[in-house]
Design brief:
about 425 residues, 7-stranded mixed β-sheet, binds pyridoxal-5'-phosphate
């Protein structure tokens, strides 16, 4: 067994892997460059003032998902806010969601004066546990907001059934899971709930810097989201500003780049899947490590590569990073409900609104112990590796070698 780099041994690799922050780790081409220039040359940068780019982007997104409507906005957080606003909760109504997500998921709930209620997650995938969601249902539940974490589809069929029984909509946060599927041949995520929300931020599979997309099969929800992104101004009618709404418009520059990126998306996801399958085949069963399965490789969107280890995720992350394969323990610093925004209820001034009763049915506070499985993932067992469609076979083989090496050091008796 060779000495770990973290203990002074030679690292598996020293050349940096491509990341989404460098050109080598992005899939941009001449078409994106041409699209930007086309918009500039048109003189119209605001999509409400004309140009084909935004309608084309929305049509591409709807077609990719075989669904009736797509609505563009300025970010993934905006897209989530559009979805929550379209559901139109009363202040203090509850939206059940996950503690393992980007804060944008929670901001969208609070911004619309609803209460985030945190259900616990599966200890291996980090995705919402339907039985915990069920236990969170109350007469004030107004929606379930599921996140497809790391690229793996959450149990959407179960969650949809729960939502239907409760008579509330399911909203899907698909920011990390473009074209992920819950089962072979099943439709992609974003098509199981009332609305699916996506992000075009720099770290996502495809990007325009920032940007958001919502998809829905419901024309009424689509229209409400469209209005919410444009100050509720029905541009084709005389009656102005129908309800309180924001300016979450996407510009033509963003739409033009996003349109090209979206056409590349199936290939981007496919390449991520192929390289993930190569990795999983190379490492086989690693003692003390849970990885997505080889069968999952074709369903997963591989935003990142999540590992669940027996414990001491920080040691694992340090050891892998020292081998030249950057790894992060826990992904988040804490489950989102332990951020000051929630523990200190920093919402609107010092009011703690809407986490107070009234408008909520009870006073809502957040602290350690709320979701023990999520806390254990973040604190002890979860390790996240970056993933990229531009990894070469040699890159993937190095990542596999680093995983095998660190696992062997962690479980010397299994690997002598
Ligand atoms: C990135 C992300 C968001 C927020 O998207 P932005 O475009 O950064 O606002 C929301 N939810 C999840 C799960 C994300 O990964």
């Amino acid at each position: 067994m060779s000495r770990l780099a973290v203990d002074g041994g030679a690292p598996v690799r020293t050349r940096p892997l491509p990341t989404v922050l460098v050109p080598a780790g992005r899939t941009f081409g001449a078409e994106e460059r041409a699209a930007v220039l086309e918009v500039l040359d048109s003189g119209v940068l605001n999509a409400s003032c004309g140009g084909p780019w935004l309608p084309e982007l929305e049509a591409t997104m709807a077609d990719l998902h075989g669904i009736g409507h797509a609505v563009a906005s300025s970010s993934g957080t905006a897209a989530l806010h559009l979805a929550v606003a379209a559901v139109d909760p009363e202040p203090g109504d509850e939206i059940i969601t996950t503690p393992l997500t980007d804060f944008g998921t929670i901001a969208a709930i609070l911004a619309q004066n609803a209460v985030p209620v945190f259900a616990d997650v599966d200890p291996l995938t980090g995705n919402l546990d339907p039985s915990s969601v069920e236990a969170c249902l109350s007469p004030r539940t107004r929606a379930i907001l599921v996140v497809h974490l790391f690229g793996a589809a959450a149990p959407v069929a179960e969650l949809r059934a729960l939502a239907d029984r409760a008579g509330v909509p399911l909203i899907e946060d698909c920011a990390q899971a473009y074209l992920a599927r819950p089962a072979p041949g099943a439709p992609p995520v974003g098509t199981y709930g009332a609305v699916g929300c996506f992000s075009l931020q720099q770290y996502k599979h495809v990007t325009a810097g920032d940007g958001g997309l919502c998809i829905t099969g419901d024309a009424v929800l689509a229209e409400r989201m469209r209005l919410f992104a444009d100050k509720a101004w029905p541009r084709d009618e005389g009656r102005f500003h129908r309800f309180l709404a924001m300016n979450y418009r996407m510009t033509n520059l963003t739409a033009a780049v996003a349109g090209v990126q979206l056409r590349r998306l199936p290939e981007v996801v496919d390449r991520r899947r192929r390289q993930a399958a190569r990795l999983l085949a190379a490492v086989g069963d690693l003692a003390g490590v849970h990885l997505p399965t080889l069968e999952d490789a074709r369903l997963h969107a591989w935003w990142v590569l999540p590992l669940v280890v027996d414990g001491d995720n920080r040691r694992w992350a340090d050891a892998l990073s020292a081998e030249g394969v950057p790894a992060v323990a826990g992904w988040l610093q804490s489950p989102v409900y332990l951020y000051p925004a929630l523990t200190e209820r920093r919402t609107y001034g010092t009011s703690a609104f809407p986490l107070t009763s009234p408008p909520a049915r009870r006073d809502w506070t957040y602290g350690p112990g709320l979701c023990p499985v999520a806390e254990r993932l973040v604190d002890d067992t979860l390790v996240v590796l970056q993933w990229n469609e531009n990894y070469t076979d040699a890159d993937v083989d190095d990542i596999a070698a680093a995983l095998v090496k660190v696992a062997a050091a962690d479980h010397p008796l299994d690997h002598q």
